[in-house]
């Protein structure tokens, strides 16, 4: 990446703010202990305390351990930044991953768990920060593969 990575920063801020705004909104819109149906049989809001990592994995670990693990993954991303493709798509991808991850870290520090609230009834309950991580990782993979194909 040449110069200051403005695209990466913008994507990171977007992923972080979306995750935090989504958590705030869900905590105010979803009834305690219940769910608010948005689209019947397709989409509901309901609060779930995710004490583990992705999909509730390693939920037996204390909050400090899962927070430290998430911060380690973020640090590894920064450590390996020379391996990132340089284009704007890759910067969007990395930024969304980092912003979403930081959003979940903030939840862990504030509540001791990540607040998940989007229920599609066919997938584990997740939040907007998780969506930013998944979308960002997908964009980064596509950008990386496209860069390798273009360079070959």
UniProtKB/TrEMBL annotation:
Organism in which the protein naturally occurs: Candidatus Segetimicrobium genomatis
Family statement drawn from the similarity comment of this UniProt entry: Belongs to the peptidase A8 family.
Record's subcellular location: Cell membrane
Class of the enzyme per the UniProt entry, highest EC level: hydrolase
Record: active site: 116, 130
Keywords (A to Z) from UniProt: Aspartyl protease, Cell membrane, Hydrolase, Membrane, Protease, Transmembrane, Transmembrane helix
Molecular function per GO: aspartic-type endopeptidase activity
Upper taxonomic lineage: Bacteria, Bacillati, Candidatus Sysuimicrobiota, Candidatus Sysuimicrobiia, Candidatus Sysuimicrobiales
Gene Ontology cellular-component annotations: plasma membrane
Record-annotated membrane-spanning stretches: 60-79, 86-105, 125-146
Pathway per the UniProt entry: Protein modification; lipoprotein biosynthesis (signal peptide cleavage)
EC number(s) on file: 3.4.23.36
Name of the protein in question: Lipoprotein signal peptidase
GO biological process: proteolysis
Its biological purpose: This protein specifically catalyzes the removal of signal peptides from prolipoproteins.
PANTHER family: LIPOPROTEIN SIGNAL PEPTIDASE
Superkingdom per UniProt: Bacteria
Membrane topology: Multi-pass membrane protein
Catalytic activity line of the entry: Release of signal peptides from bacterial membrane prolipoproteins. Hydrolyzes -Xaa-Yaa-Zaa-|-(S,diacylglyceryl)Cys-, in which Xaa is hydrophobic (preferably Leu), and Yaa (Ala or Ser) and Zaa (Gly or Ala) have small, neutral side chains
């Amino acid at each position: 990446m040449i110069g200051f990575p403005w695209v990466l920063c913008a994507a990171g801020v977007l992923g972080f703010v979306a995750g935090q705004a989504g958590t705030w909104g869900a905590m105010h819109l979803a009834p305690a202990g219940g769910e608010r149906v948005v689209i019947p049989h397709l989409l509901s809001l309901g609060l779930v305390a995710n004490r583990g990592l992705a999909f509730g994995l390693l939920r037996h670990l204390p909050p400090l351990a899962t927070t430290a693990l998430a911060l380690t993954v973020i640090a590894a991303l920064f450590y390996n930044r020379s391996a990132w493709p340089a284009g704007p798509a890759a910067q969007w991808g990395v930024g969304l991953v980092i912003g979403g991850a930081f959003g979940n870290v903030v939840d862990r520090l504030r509540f001791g768990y990540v607040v998940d609230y989007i229920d599609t009834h066919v997938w584990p309950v997740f939040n907007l920060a998780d969506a930013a991580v998944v979308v960002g990782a997908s964009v980064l993979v596509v950008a990386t593969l496209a860069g390798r194909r273009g360079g070959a």
